[in-house]
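Lab manual, section 2.4: Encoding a predicted structure.

Procedure: take the sequence of the chain (695 residues), apply the prediction step described in section 2.3, and record the output as structure tokens. A sample record is shown.
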Amino acid sequence: MRLAFLGSLFRRDRLTGQVAAGLVGVLAIAAAVYGVGVASATYRLADVGAWLTATGRGLVVHVNGPAGKVDGKTAVVPQMRGHNIKIVQDGGTVLIVDLDTGVVSRLDPSQLDIGTSRPLGKGIQVLAAGGKAYTVDSVKGVVQEIDPVALTPVGASATLPPVLGQAGIDARGALWVPVARNGEVAAFSGGRLRPPVRVGEAGDSLALTMAAGNPVVTDSTAATATVVKASGEKITVSLPTTVRRAGRGGVLAPAATEGETVPLLVPGAGSLVTVDTGTGRYSSTRLAMPRHRYRPPQMLGAKVYIPDETAGALIVYDSANNRFEKPVPVAGRPAKLDVFVRDGMLWANDPSGPRAVVIDREGAGKGVDKYKDRVPGGPDRRPIPLPGGGEAPPPRAPRQPSQPPAPPGPGEPPSAPSNISVTPGAGTMRVDFQPSQGDGVIGYVLKDVPSGMTVSPSAIRQGAGPFTFTVGGGDCGREYRFRVAVRYRDARGRTREQVSAASDPVRPCVAPGAPTGLTAQATSSGAKVSWTPPPGAGSVTYRLAYDGPVSGSATGAQTSVTLGDVYTNGSYSFAVTAANGAGTGAAAVLDATLTGPAAKYPVERNGNSDAYIRATPDGKNGALVATMHDNNGEMITVHCQEKGVYYTHPRDSSLAGDMYAKVTWQGKTGYLLGYLVNTPGDWKSFAGPPVWKCK
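Recorded output:
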């Protein structure tokens, strides 16, 4: 046995606001690695694998995913044994976080040994991805990048309004943190905070998911999901209002998904919502969920895996076929489960027991015995097993209330249609369901369809399939619920109906796409901004935001707007989004340099006298460009107006001011005192959109 002693006393950590208070006395930390006889021994673990905790025996084990076998293990530091342990893993970065004490230790996979340990503070979030590592003090609102090897601060920290939500790291290595107090999500990288992104109202319940490397924030209070793209585009999707029934903790959302689809579970309503963050569309299914304790759902391929901690198992829902599959037992008893997706495989672990399960994209699962000893790091050294060997027997499955009910007995009416799933479309709503079980079924009809709306087909015969209705019409500003009825003949030959529970609410529309053809033009009335509606947009509301020398926004249903407050020459950014009841689409963005139109105005107050055009707006000291003599009424080209050096006429004190007009006269361009040209309005003030400001 080789012991790595890390010192007898933790010195005070220098992470701002992240020091674990109250560490008193001598704390000896020993990292024990079994079976390693040579200090320089190097181990090669499976490339497709994951580290799992086995706190009951004080172990951290590495599992080969394809084989479902443990191929390495190490003992955690003695003080962590029996504690609530979390593993943060990203390639060669493996951090062991003791959630009970706030001590973080780095595991060296090549040596199966624990190296650096530091007390970062109880309750601190520790994250690692893309070669970056961060800590987040949710209570104090402090975020800090750290070195994933030395666990020391990198660069400056930053402070956000607490309490902060569960953070995540995007595909570019930036940290994103929900700030519920402000209804925002903030990004932090390189020791600096980026401008926050508005995702809800102040105080809303926010949950962050990294979907394919992009932040997605679910607002349970407003029933919305906001996708922040790498380009800076923001898409907001209106979710079914049942999301608001999630309760105090909000919806259950995974911390990350490998694909663009995010599964959301609303335990109180039994609703499972899958949001396609690439298209901004969702599907919602009302599931017959027992009143158990659940963890956030995970998605691999088309299947959603819902950790059921009351049963110690995974509920499996096939979203492509709208049906449950047989639950996957993990612990075989009530247990807190650690479930995540990594390297194209789903991992489900019982930290306090010997069992874990690994599932591939095809849904094939393998049971894992974490206590197996004949592996590197165990008492008997042996070569790392290759993929394709046998597997540990899976734990015995308890009876799952979520399994499909048994078929009705003879003489009983068929079961009601189940798994009523709704998907919004452009002017349509799709309703899918699972057919009834039992005898005497004639077919199915859709119920609760408002007058004036169409249903196709009008009925579905038993065994005909697919079990899908399409509803046309309706108002995008409303939500609709539907039920499916099975028609059957009873024992006396009479036609009867058995009706399902109501679906989740759904709208006959989807969030619009980005407008196209965005243009901006300087006019004598202001900046005219125009665009083309998104394809199939229907009735939408547009929001135009602009930034530059003048900033602001405008909202309306028209595809063109003239901004009367934009009459200053310069560079502008314009962004226009389309919104309807289903959400807000991506923005069309345009960067443009605007220069106001020139116009001719008459010279005045220059009878039998001289008027000077100068190179700068300085009526006395500016370099002389040209002299006009006795030319009242002559039309002169005015380009723009600008404030300059205050000037008072030497013989008429009423002709005083700092307004100048930039003009062109006889091919020469310069600045002329404002009272010498008859521009609209008071010559002492800017004329407004007819004459733009120079800068």
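Check your result against the sample. The domain at 516-594 is CATH 2.60.40.10 (Immunoglobulin-like).
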